[in-house]
Amino acid sequence: MEKLTLLSTLVFTLAGLFSLFLIRTEISLETLLQVIAAVILLVVLTTRFVFKKIVGQNKTLAYLVESLAISLFIYVLVFSTGSLTSPFLILTHLYAIGVAFLISWQITISFVFITVAFLILSIRFDPTVSAQLLENQFTLILYFLAYLAILPFTNFLAKIYRQKEAWVEELSQMLSTSKKHQETLLKNIEDAVVVISKDFAISFVNQAAVEKTGFAQNDIIGKNFFEVFTIKDDTGGTLESEKLPFSAVLATENEVKVDKLQISTKGANFLRINLKILPVIDHNGQVLGLMIIIKDFDERETASWAQLEKVQEKLSIMPQDKLKETAYDLLLALRLESGTVEGLSSFINISDIVEKEMIVFRQFAQERRVNLTCPSPTNDTILPKGKIIMSEKHCTFPVVYVLANGKLLTAAIHNLMKVAISLAEPSGEVHADVQTATDIVKFELLVTNKKIKQEDLNLLLNKFFNEDLKLPNLEICTGLEIAIAKEIFEKHGGVLKISKNPKGILISATLIRLEMKITKPNVPRFKEN
């Protein structure tokens, strides 16, 4: 900015000298009009060609180049028509305000002082102006007071304008971050997702949709949904668009679920699915299209009523404290499925949550004869002598922040640790770890249990898994812990996986990392005496 200020000062000075030169040479009116026409042509050419090329690369420099051409036009016009007595003198005030808005207040100060200096010189060189001002010296004082008054006024307006411009830039960055985050959420959902416009043209498909249907993104983007996919009911009858609630969702803006359907793949096969159709609404409340979530149809769902009857029978004989815990988990699961939970509210240190939950479960793990471990510090901390009270760090997790709902993320990690300790073999180990990469963070629990099979691990993802898994150590669980944790991680754009590992069971949760702006505090500086 200092270089731009010096450059503008130099150009203002040259423009003023050129204008005073016109007064001293006493050129003819015709020549003066030709000079003014040439300056106007310079302004037009600068606006049409130079400004457009520079504005995309450096907006401040573009405005400066444009304003310098305009300043030459104003100086020529004002000094050739009587300087202080010119009817166009008001243009210098307007120009000063415009420069403060678009470029900087420093350049406005430079322009005002150079203008005042050349106006004083013009009085000496132009006898007509000198004679008029001698008759009324009060007018001269008012002219210069006007220039002094314009400086604080332009400074005030420029500050407000810059502040609003900063707000707009910050809001646009937030919208851009939100858009990227939404795209990342869609890409990381394990279920197939297809986004279509109001006329059913496909505008987005995630990787899961590509893998399940066999269609490449480039093959189906822009095509009509019903031209690409054939939808059938559970009896094999083809369903046209009129028989599906797509238009109803667009009209009512309410989500709809349709179960027991079939959808075609690229290989002319059909997958048994359940559909969830949601409206896509912009910030103005206008419906832009539909989001179609294609869920795999699980044969176990056909037996869900029988399972619920078993659960109802079990709840009737359950102790009161266990019944409260089950009811809480059931309500939370219903809230998560209905989408009535709070959004991603703030940046949360996931490592801090993990370490606090390890402290919570330490007694429970000892009762189960399970060793709860984590990466420990390599060097012992030497504490000061005497009795002190301070928090002690037991784990060396990296400090990593994720955009999350703190209560929900804590509940998910709590549930995973609870199930992990319950699954561990006696005298076994549950090792917790937090790992980071460029765009993701992983929370992992490695559980010692070599006997359990992968088929049994898959059952953990079911609601009331303790009804399917007849393991003695799971009686403390409500059976909803993993389903709740999975739903929470997916709502945060993450993925939860449970798999066999050479050492036992690996519970891995992946979350997206977003950039967090850290504002440096203003540290007061003290002068040395």
TrEMBL record:
- Recite the UniProt keywords alphabetically: Kinase, Membrane, Phosphoprotein, Transferase, Transmembrane, Transmembrane helix, Two-component regulatory system
Q: Key word Transmembrane helix present in the record?
A: yes
Ranges in a coiled coil:
none
EC number per UniProt: 2.7.13.3
Q: Where is the PAS domain?
A: 178-233
Q: What domain of life? A: Bacteria
One biological process term from GO is: cellular response to phosphate starvation
Which chain regions cross the lipid bilayer?
A: 32-51, 63-82, 94-120, 140-158
Broadest EC class assigned to this enzyme: transferase
What GO molecular function annotations does the UniProt record carry, in alphabetical order? phosphoprotein phosphatase activity; phosphorelay sensor kinase activity
Q: Which reaction does it catalyse?
A: ATP + protein L-histidine = ADP + protein N-phospho-L-histidine
Entry GO CC: plasma membrane
By what name is this protein known?
Answer: histidine kinase
